Amino acid sequence: MKIIISLSLAIVLVSCGQGNNDMATLQHQVDSLQKQLNHTYKPGLGEFMMGVQEHHAKLWFAGINQNWPLADFEVHEIGETVDDIKQYCTDRPEVKSIGIIDPAISSIDAAIKQKSVEQFKKAFTDLTNSCNNCHKDNQHGFNVITIPTGLPVENQRFKPGQ
Ligand code: HEC
């Protein structure tokens, strides 16, 4: 009987030891995955902003050319980039003010639905002002966004039609 008890105890001890080993391996894997995650490339706020800048410029030429499907696409790209900023730039306190552009985005949406160039131009000016207001509120007033004066790219057509 004594032998059986000691044997069972030995088995329990061995399996616990095995468990610890598994835990150690798992912890090691978690640590190395965490390390890899920390080194994964994430675009910074400035990089996202350059994307926003490009969409802002394309949106203007789409709108003034009454290319409403393209304008709709570009304004949604700005919205998606803003969502990415909220998700990936949590280390930047400035992001708290990003909602400042929401009303202008809604006005642009409305202008696109109405297919009204006049309404679009006004909403676009509001959008541009809200970009600059956020920059001013966050010590980036030197990044001044304007209504574009020239095409952002030369290899894309902004006039409607396939
Ligand atoms: C959170 C408020 C906020 C809003 C809204 C905002 N920006 Fe910015 N923007 C910033 C901050 C902060 C920076 C500086 C980022 C950095 O440190 O690299 C910046 C930088 C920029 C830059 C400079 C990027 C570079 O590296 O050259 C551009 C261009 C820019 N924004 C365009 C825009 C446009 C266009 C809009 C509006 C459609 C806009 N931003 C709206 C906060 C904002």
From TrEMBL:
InterPro entries: Cyt_c/b562. One of its GO terms (molecular function) is electron transfer activity. GO terms for biological process: electron transport chain. Signal peptide: none annotated. Transmembrane segments: none annotated. This is Cytochrome c.
